[in-house]
Design brief:
heterodimer; A: 240 residues; alpha/beta; Rossmann fold; six-stranded mixed β-sheet; four-stranded antiparallel β-sheet; 37% helix; globular; B: 342 residues; mainly alpha
Chain lengths: 240, 342
């Protein structure tokens, strides 16, 4: 019954503009849950509110039944880790240093070395470029680094904000395949995506967000064939 | 690991070199001043270069260190070593009180606040006549900052600083400089990081001020005005932001250049004899009057470095390569135009 991550009734506003008006979500252990929606639906706001990057007017979040703290560094330490929108890697630092920084929030540093091997196993491309400055990586590699860096914290839940942003379709497919492997390794994933088709194909369950409110939720397979979702978010073509 | 051992050994050798080199009294004084300026510059470099907080008021922490050490040694008769440490500690305590409300400011706003705070501390020292003797200055400080003491403190603090910037704390500071939002997503408490950087930099400046008091034997508040604060930050920018060795190089060059400008007439006996008497006269005139124009030259030096080496002295290497490629244009990367690859 009790979910791994439980978000209840989030309300967030920027001045007079209400970005989220009562959004709830739950995520089970080893599950991939995605949140899709168009521009300005409140997806990133939701992610930032969970992480404590923006203040919320109302609503609470629970990890393993324990209430999540308010400030972002405390949220990270309690077991959530976000690969943020636009990646936000430390461009002047090397790949290795970026990964080391990712392990900062761990209570015990001892497992960090083993986890770095694990990240290299998941993303072999990063191992090839371990001494390279992160800013000189390609977009896809930077996204892999952002995900790897988030994994270095050994989070209970990995949060991903628009991992497909600005990437070529073939790279997007690569990244999403990697994410499936990460999940098969036992990591629960909460994904926010504008690329609805990829998100629906990857995730187990999906929430559709529209102007700050829940439009629909259900198993991703069902939503893939839902006529309303199809016409609004998937289009007719064979977009990746 | 091996890299940091090598760096530590290099600093120890540099310290021994500074402490044991046979020098005249005047040259010894320059070495002491060099150590004092380097300690302060390292502190400001940590804050400005590594944490991205621009300050224009750090001379105030030097003043606090100087007055603490002066009052403790000259008035209360405390030994100089605990007095120097106390100078650092008092600077840290005041920095903490100031940092609590002001470190919420970022970027230019903190720089502006730091001007006011620096001046406020100087004005308090100037007007608290019963305790500090105010603008008349504080005389009769024992001359405890010998060359050995200054070199030893420089070495110890230098090793501590170089190890700090390579440590977890160093990574934490750089992360919150490069992207505060991303740093907080890594689990860094960025407000606390900024505070740590401020406290450490205040400690270095406090120690530096305490040494200055023991070197000058007379201090007055006007020695620690905004001019001095600006100089501290200028030295760090001059050396290159985010480079500790660049900071040391910059501090050394500025200190030596200022000393040279001050005493340029000392070069007169060394003017080679093959220069015609007319030009010798011009040179002697120029050198004897140079000290009047030293601030002008200092300004020119800073502007010149900013134009030619936008990354400061740490960019010296790439600058040298660029100059080299002017003279030998064929070295370096192949030019597609010339190779006929259009």
């Amino acid at each position: 019954m009790s979910a791994l991550l439980e978000v209840r009734d989030f309300h967030v506003s920027y001045g007079a503009i209400k970005a989220l008006q009562g959004f709830s979500l739950s995520l089970e252990e080893r599950e991939i849950v995605s949140v899709i929606g168009s521009n300005g639906a409140g997806k990133s706001t939701f992610m930032n509110a969970v992480m404590g990057m923006v203040a919320r007017d109302r609503g609470e979040a629970f990890l393993d039944g324990r209430k999540l703290p308010a400030r972002s560094f405390q949220v990270v330490r309690s077991g959530l880790s976000l690969a943020p929108e636009g990646r936000k890697i430390f461009a002047p630092l090397t790949v290795l240093e970026n990964l080391q920084i990712g392990a900062f929030s761990r209570a015990k540093q001892s497992g960090a070395r083993a986890d770095m091997e694990w990240v290299f196993y998941l993303f072999p491309r990063l191992k090839e470029r371990v001494r390279q400055l992160a800013g000189t990586l390609s977009g896809g590699e930077q996204q892999m680094l952002a995900i790897g860096r988030a994994l270095m914290a050994r989070p209970r839940v990995l949060l991903l904000d628009e991992p497909s942003l600005g990437l070529a379709p073939i790279v997007i497919r690569d990244i999403f395949n990697e994410l499936r492997r990460v999940n098969e390794e036992g990591v629960s994933i909460l994904l926010v995506e504008q690329n609805a088709r990829q998100a629906l194909l990857l995730s187990h369950r999906t929430y559709v967000l529209q102007t700050g409110r829940l439009l629909k939720e259900g198993p991703s397979k069902t939503l893939l064939t839902d006529p309303e979702i199809k016409s609004a978010y998937l289009g007719k073509g064979q977009a990746p | 690991m091996r890299k940091s051992l090598l760096g530590n050994a290099a600093l120890v050798i540099l310290g021994l070199f500074l402490a044991l080199l046979p020098l005249t009294g005047y040259q010894e004084g320059i070495v002491v001043l060099l150590c004092i300026n380097c300690v302060a510059a390292m502190g400001v470099s940590l804050l400005t270069g590594f944490t991205g907080i621009f300050t224009l008021g750090h001379a105030a922490y030097m003043a606090l260190g100087a007055y603490t050490a002066a009052i403790m040694t000259a008035r209360w008769g405390v030994h100089w070593l605990p007095s120097i440490v106390a100078g650092g500690v008092v600077a840290v305590a005041v920095a903490w009180l100031i940092g609590m409300p002001t470190l919420r400011l970022t970027g230019d706003y903190y720089a502006i606040a730091s001007i006011g705070l620096g001046e406020a501390i100087r004005l308090i020292l100037e007007n608290w006549q019963s305790f500090t003797r105010g603008a008349r200055g504080f005389p009769g400080i024992a001359s405890y900052a010998s060359r050995g003491v200054a070199a030893a403190l420089f070495t110890v603090l230098g090793i501590a600083m170089f190890n700090l910037i390579g440590s977890r704390l160093g990574r934490e500071l750089k992360a919150s400089r490069d992207d505060p939002a991303a740093a907080s997503l890594m689990g860094f408490n960025t407000t606390a990081s900024r505070m740590k950087a401020l406290l450490i930099s205040a400690f270095y400046c406090g120690i530096s001020g305490a040494l200055l008091a023991g070197y000058m034997t007379f201090i007055q508040p006007s020695m620690f005005d905004m001019m001095k604060s600006t100089e501290l930050t200028a030295v760090v920018v001059f050396g290159g932001l985010g480079s500790m060795s660049g900071t040391l190089l910059g501090a050394a060059i500025i200190t030596l250049a200022m000393e040279l400008f001050r005493n340029a007439s000392g070069i007169v006996p060394y003017i080679p004899s093959f220069i015609s008497p007319k030009w010798t006269g011009v040179l002697v005139d120029f050198l004897t009057n140079l000290s009047q124009y030293r601030m002008l030259l200092y300004g020119l030096l800073l502007v010149g470095v900013m134009v030619l080496l936008p990354e400061g002295m740490q960019g010296l290497w790439s600058f040298a390569r660029k100059i080299f490629s002017w003279f030998f244009p064929d070295t370096g990367r192949p030019d597609p135009e010339k190779e006929g690859l259009r």
